[in-house]
Each structure stands twice: as C-alpha cells, then as structure tokens.
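Notes to self, Transcriptional regulator, LysR family:
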Amino acid sequence: MSNPEIRELEAFLALADELHFGRAGERLYLSQSRISQLLRALESRIGGRLVDRTSRRVRLTPLGERLHAGLRPAFDAIVETIDEVREAARGVGGVFRVGFQGTANDPFMRAVTAFRDGHPHCAAEIVEIPLSDPFGAVHRGEVDAAVVLMPVRDDALVLGAVFSARPLTLAVSDRHPYARRPGVDAEDLAGCPLIGVSGAAPEYWRLAQAPVVTPGGRAIPAGPAVGSLQEGLALVRAGRGGMLLCDPTADYYGSHAVTFVPVAGLPESSLALVWHRNLETARTRGFARALADVTEATG
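result:
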C-alpha cells in the first residue's frame, strides 16, 4: 500500500488540533468535505479508523491518538527544518516585532542584542504591550512575539521561556497604615482594596494580578480597574487602593508618594515569551532561542 500524502497528514494533524472539521478546513484553506476526503484516504491507507465523529463532537480513536503522538513532533521537525533552510538560503531578514509589557528588563534587552548580533539582516523592534491587553497584539499579528506577565492559559499561544521570577510587593500610598510596616502577609490584603486591570485581558489573568480572595479564603475588597500601570500608580498615590507589583517594577517606578511593601505568602511574579502557534517563523524561533540562552545563563 502506498505511503500517505503530505496533505492527508496535514489534514489529520489540523483535525487533531481543532477536533472540528470546519475549523480544520479553515486552517488549511480547504472545505470541510475536502478534509473528510483526506481523512478517509489516510484511514484507508492505514487500515483503521483514526477519528470518531458524532453530531456533537469529534475525537481521536486510540489508533488516532497513537498516530498523532508520533506524527506531530516528526511533522513539526520537518516543517521547521525546511523553514530554517529556506531562511538560511536567503538570510533571516525583514523585521521582527516583539512586544513587552511594562519595562524592558535586562534579560530581555540582552536577548534583543543577541538576536540582532545573530541575525544582522533582521531588524528587531520593541513594541509596548498595554497592561489591559497582554495577548491581543499577538493574536492580531501586530507583533511576532511578546513578553507578558504570567499566567498564560491560551491554547492558541506557544509558551516559550519563563523568566524573571520575583517577589511581589504591595504598592500603597505613603499615608496608608501598611506603608509603615516592613512587610505584610497575604492575608493582610483583606484590609486593602486592590486596584485591578480593565480591558481585554482574560479574567483568569486579571484575577492573578488582583486576586479577590486571600490564600486563606478571606475576601479582598475590589478597588478601581485601570488600563495602564501609570493609571494604577496614580490611584495608589490618591489613596484609592493598593496594587500588586513585582519588586523590580517597584524599584523602577519608585515615588515619594508611594511605598512598596513586601508581601509574604503569594507566588512570585514571572514573565514569559509567547507567540501565536499559527504565525511562527524562523525569526520567532531565533528570538526564542536567544531569550532562552540568556535566561539559562543567568539562572
């Protein structure tokens, strides 16, 4: 029996990712019926059903799961190799736009420098990502990748290096009672309204930046919601609430009217590189490697 054709494998992998014939077709610019034809052809070559489908859902059979587990990394490696060889033949050029949320820190800037040194024909541009919409620019293709605050729970995004884990501080007005303490416990947040994030940021991400309960289950009062860090700090100075920030951000935005109090009992804040899995390029992988090398070298 002849070996599968590349289009059959692409259709199967798209269907395994989407579990929906229509969306799989959209990814490959094919009709739903064409995806069905390609799947049937692949199943015929293999001699078994790869997908179970009902009126309500699509799922892989055990045989399909086994094929997907072995095929996906091999197929991705082939695509990546071809892409990298193609880019090497013409040189990695063009413009690589990388977003950053907040203030570009030292590991990030060293990665930008390393990327520029390794890809002299590619211009690297840094774009500010708004606090209120950490993932939007990546989804819209406005940037090739972005460094954002964790957590990231988006199946459409690839999670690259996670780095710069730092303790959290509570930014409060210097008139706030907590400003006179050397530190506070996470349970003390029940006594301070937290300024949250408005806009397009997903709810899980907004709750991570401004939780509504303490680890012990006590309710934390909700303060105003803002679209930028500068707005939040202005409200802090006005005594409208506190804001959870990592200590490097506290150092950078230190103000005579704001006190940054260390908080014990909360997970550290971390940054992560993300990019859209359907828009990945050799430039994206090159920058991801540069950032991974920098963060590994610094621990």
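- The CA atoms of residues 246 and 297 lie 22 Å apart.
- The first helix runs from residue 6 to 18.
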